[in-house]
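Consider the tokenized backbone below.
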């Protein structure tokens, strides 16, 4: 290699990555670590990190890296990841397109009481989108306020909170199919959306580029189905409310549980709800109640939250975790990784935690719930270079 061919100090060593820097909308972030880019504040250093400001830049980066057989991590807001430390054998493609467009028929839709469509770039901060829709007087996304991450991640895991899931308001998704090389818009049925999952979760099938959602121009919320939220709002379950009021109330509830990101509060340094609410077969429910009764008594067994769900009965992961003996702040104030002091479903980084610390805590909680009640908890985050 001649001196002219030698990469400069700020240039990536990988020739494929260097060539991508000539593409409009692509830039490199030298010396970046995943700890700087994930809400859990954990993760090592990738081979390179490419910031992609447009959908076309995302496509170009993923296409060329796939063709060169480079391991790729497509990164949005970093809110649902547990990443190993050290040097990571992968190139990060950071999706940063943030375009926002409302349908031209907004005025006509409002007059007719119909839905309108908002189209958002996958790299747009999710709560910024929610805030903008509510400020414009549109309803539909308000119950999903305060959820960290990017727009592109929401259909991947069918994000949901306070009785609303993305599946209820999703109109279309634009994705880049990595197998076929097609850039196309698809309807929700193509995603096979289910509880906190889709065909895109934990796979490399496609990259989300843009997302369209249905909104209600009248400024009324989605039906309020979550009992705690309905009580705070003073409405009956199933009723609608003012979208702005719902957003404020949801944010208050989330802050009370440490579920709104705050750089100065380690209780919010998490991947959100770490375990999904388990769904068990209906015939297993009596045995679970029996085990709760043996451990806690008949009263708690009868009061255990249980709801009908596709495939059986849905239980509360947070309720099971606490009743298995894992209280808020577990295991101790000196631990680098521990449960939030506000919400037992959040595993938090107290400032110096590693992936190994988080994994050890997650296994402790998972195994403890299984031993106590015979229920298997499943983690919600995506694992990069490590596993539970």
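A designed sequence for it:
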């Amino acid at each position: 290699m001649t001196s002219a061919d030698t990469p400069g100090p700020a240039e990536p060593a990988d020739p494929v990555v260097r060539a991508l820097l000539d593409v409009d909308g692509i830039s490199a972030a030298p010396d970046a670590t995943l700890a700087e880019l994930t809400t859990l504040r954990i993760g090592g250093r990738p081979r390179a990190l490419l910031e992609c400001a447009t959908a076309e830049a995302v496509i170009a980066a993923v296409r060329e890296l796939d063709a060169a057989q480079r391991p790729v991590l497509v990164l949005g807001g970093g809110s649902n990841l547990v990443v190993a430390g050290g040097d990571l054998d992968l190139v990060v493609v950071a999706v940063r397109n943030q375009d926002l467009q409302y349908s031209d028929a907004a005025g006509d839709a409002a007059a007719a009481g119909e839905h309108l469509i908002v189209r958002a770039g996958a790299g747009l901060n999710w709560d910024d989108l929610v805030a903008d829709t509510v400020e414009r007087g549109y309803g539909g996304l308000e119950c999903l306020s305060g959820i960290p991450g990017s727009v592109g991640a929401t259909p991947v895991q069918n994000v949901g909170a306070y009785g609303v899931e993305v599946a209820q308001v999703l109109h279309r998704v634009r994705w880049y199919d990595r197998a076929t090389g097609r850039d196309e818009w698809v309807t929700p049925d193509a995603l096979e959306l289910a509880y906190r999952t889709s065909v895109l979760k934990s796979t490399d099938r496609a990259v989300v580029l843009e997302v369209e959602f249905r909104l209600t121009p009248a400024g009324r919320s989605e039906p309020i189905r979550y009992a705690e939220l309905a009580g705070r709002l003073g409405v009956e379950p199933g009723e609608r409310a003012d979208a702005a009021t719902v957003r404020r109330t949801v944010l208050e509830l989330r802050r009370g549980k440490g579920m709104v990101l705050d750089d100065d509060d380690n209780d919010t340094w998490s991947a959100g709800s770490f375990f999904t609410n388990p769904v068990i077969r209906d015939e297993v429910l009596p045995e679970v109640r029996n085990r709760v009764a043996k451990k806690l008594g008949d009263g708690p067994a009868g009061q255990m939250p249980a709801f009908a769900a596709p495939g059986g009965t849905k239980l509360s992961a947070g309720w099971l975790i606490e009743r298995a003996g894992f209280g808020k702040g577990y295991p101790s104030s000196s631990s680098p990784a521990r449960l939030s002091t506000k919400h037992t479903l959040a595993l938090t980084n107290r400032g110096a935690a590693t992936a190994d610390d988080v994994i050890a805590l997650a296994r402790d909680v998972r195994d403890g719930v299984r031993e106590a009640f015979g229920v298997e908890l499943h983690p919600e985050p995506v694992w990069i270079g490590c596993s539970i």
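The longest helix spans residues 355-373.
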